[in-house]
Structures are given as structure tokens and as C-alpha cells.
Amino acid sequence: MDTNKTKDKQYLFDNPKNIKRVLYTLYASCFLLVVLDFVIHRHVYHSWENLPLFYPLYGFVGCVVLVFVAKWMRTFLMRPEDYYDNPKDDYDIPDDVDSEHTLKNAADENTHKGQTDQTTNTIGGHDVDA
User: Fold this and answer.
1) What is d(CA 7, CA 2) in angstroms, rounded to the nearest whole number?
2) Percent of the chain, pLDDT > 70?
3) What are the backbone angles phi and psi of residue 123, rounded to the nearest 5°?
4) Cα–Cα distance between 68 and 85 in angstroms, integer?
5) Which residues cross the membrane (predicted)?
6) In which band, very low, low, confident or very high, does the pLDDT at 18 lie, cut at 50, 70 and 90?
7) How many domains does the chain have?
8) Does residue 97 belong to any structural domain of this protein?
9) Is residue 31 in a domain?
10) Are 62 and 43 in contact (CB under 8 A)?
11) CA 42 – CA 39 distance, rounded (Å)
């Protein structure tokens, strides 16, 4: 198998020209929408919807508010960097007990692993897993 083919393979955005094309297309569509905002007649319910550039400004302010709310929520939702690394801290396991072995046994108990005589329920002559 030739590994040079994978190294030489170019994807769409590996070429800087394609990135510029996408950006120019984005800029042109934004400019077109701003121009159309002045041309197209809308049926509005509130007077502030008639303001020029109301909807782009409304969307921009909404995104900024979302970012600030997310930063604020991060203060009480954030967990320490090693939150999932040390399972002993979460379960109050004594130091003399092998935590990995204990957690494996707990997982086996929860999944009924190794149990051979599981009873089946029958309802109306059909086997039902409960």
C-alpha cells in the first residue's frame, strides 16, 4: 500500500484559493442581504421592525448576549480539569481497596454479567424481557 497517496491527497480547504472563494461568497451574500433589507417591503407588526438594519442588529446582539450568558454559566457549571481522572474521590473508597477492581464488580452487578439463570417472564404465552 502506497502511503504517499494519503500524504499527497488535497482536500477542499487545503488550498488557500478555495478559502478565499468561500469568504468572498460569504461577504457577497451578506452585502446582498443588507441591500435587500432596504429594497424588500415587509409586513411588520411592530414599529421598530421598520428601522434600517433592525434584523441584522437584532441577530448580532442576540449572539453577543448568548456568549455572555454562556460565560456566566461557566462559572457554576465548570468542573476541575481532572474531574474524571480519579474515581476514588467520587465514591469514598478506602485507600486499601483496589478501586478499579471494585468499580468493575459494581459494573458487573449492574449489568447482571455472569448470571446464567435469568428468569423470563411470560405474558399471554410470549416471552417478555423485563
Assistant:
1) 10
2) 61
3) -125, 120
4) 30
5) 21-41, 53-70
6) very high
7) 2
8) yes
9) yes
10) no
11) 9
Per the structure block, which three cell numbers stand in for 68? 455572555
State the residue range of the domain holding 26.
7-40
Q: For the chain, report the end-to-end CA distance as a whole number of angstroms.
A: 50
Q: What secondary structure, in 3-state letters, does the chain show?
A: CCCHHHHHCCCHHHCHHHHHHHHHHHHHHHHHHHHHHHHCCCCCCCHHHHCCCHHHHHHHHHHHHHHHHHHHHHHHHCCCCCCCCCCHHHHCCCCCCCHHHHHHHHHHHHHCCCCCCCCCEEECCEEECC
Q: Show the cell assigned to 26.
A: 460569504
Residue pLDDT, tens place only, 30-84: 999 888 888 888 888 988 888 888 888 899 999 999 999 999 999 999 888 887 7
Q: Cell 467520587, residue?
A: 90
Q: Is 47 part of any domain?
A: no
Q: Examine residue 118 and state whether it is found in any structural domain, yes or no.
A: no
Instruction: Give the model confidence (pLDDT) of 88-107 as tens digits.
Output: 555 555 666 555 555 566 65
Cell 486499601 locates to 96
pTM: 0.45
Q: What is the pLDDT of residue 73?
A: 96
